[in-house]
Design brief:
This protein has about 230 residues and is of the alpha/beta class. It has four helices and seven strands. Strands 1, 2, 3, 4, 5, 6 and 7 form a seven-stranded mixed sheet that branches. Strand 2 and strand 3 form a beta hairpin. Helix 2 runs antiparallel to helix 4. The chain is extended and about 75 Å long. The chain starts with a helix and ends in a 15-residue tail after the last helix.
Length: about 230
């Protein structure tokens, strides 16, 4: 009984750890900065710290004398008949409709996994700032209009399809200097346990709806036994 409590305690401990959010922060202005935070741990992914160059040690290469290969007559092996794989046998047994249904079940399972994974991520912050400029005022105005026609619908699509807590997009034309400046700041969080759940669910769906069906209907047909009738 004590061993059971220990096992349950270990499982509960890992479930609690996997339920803690992992936050990824991305900031772009002049350079890209990426950091990952989990509990009290923080890792700076970009920019990478510069490493001091260490003198490389010279390695002596030893040359091995290659022995001449003796020419020998190669006797070609008899070709073996290729056996039909399970997909071919499944097609023969179930036909086109069976293959189409199998593909539909696979696509539904994988699509459901990606939907669950997408909903597992949360945009804590999504801040975008763009400054658009060109050669003269007319070109700047045209470029500004094109940028707005692309950027605002893209932000709306992200907000509608993803979970976004705080967001803002700002686009300004630069009629004086004609400079192009882009700034991005986002913080994305996810609970690892949700990703694991999505993978487990799709694994069971593929097992029962695809793999077992494929194995069941891909068996080779049994040989026909001729009946002899003695009169």
């Amino acid at each position: 009984m004590t061993a059971l409590y220990i096992i349950l305690g270990i499982i509960a401990f890992f479930v609690i750890l996997l339920s803690v959010k992992v936050a990824v922060t991305v900031h772009y202005e002049d350079d890209v900065a990426v950091s990952v935070k989990w509990l009290f741990l923080k890792f700076n992914i970009l920019p990478k710290p510069e490493k001091e160059d260490k003198p490389e040690k010279k390695k002596k290469e030893k040359k091995k004398e290659e022995k001449p290969k003796e020419e020998s007559e190669v006797i070609p092996e008899p070709k073996k008949k290729k056996k039909d794989n399970m997909f071919v046998r499944f097609y023969r047994n179930r036909g086109v409709e069976g293959v189409v249904q199998l593909l539909k079940d696979t696509a539904n399972a994988v699509g459901g996994m990606f939907r669950r994974i997408g909903r597992a991520f949360l945009f804590e912050e999504l801040i975008i700032s763009l400054t658009v400029g060109a050669g003269d005022s007319a070109e700047t105005a045209i470029k500004y209009g094109k940028t707005c026609s692309v950027a605002f619908p893209a932000m709306g699509l992200i907000v509608d399809t993803m979970r976004v807590k705080k967001y803002n997009i700002e686009i300004n034309p630069d009629f004086i200097y004609g400079k192009n400046v882009a700034r991005l700041h986002t913080c994305i969080s996810v609970r690892p346990v949700k990703l694991i759940n999505a993978v487990i669910i799709v694994a069971f769906e593929l097992l029962f709806k695809v793999v077992l069906k494929l194995l069941k209907h891909s068996k080779a047909p049994k040989a026909n036994v001729e009946k002899q009738v003695n009169k």
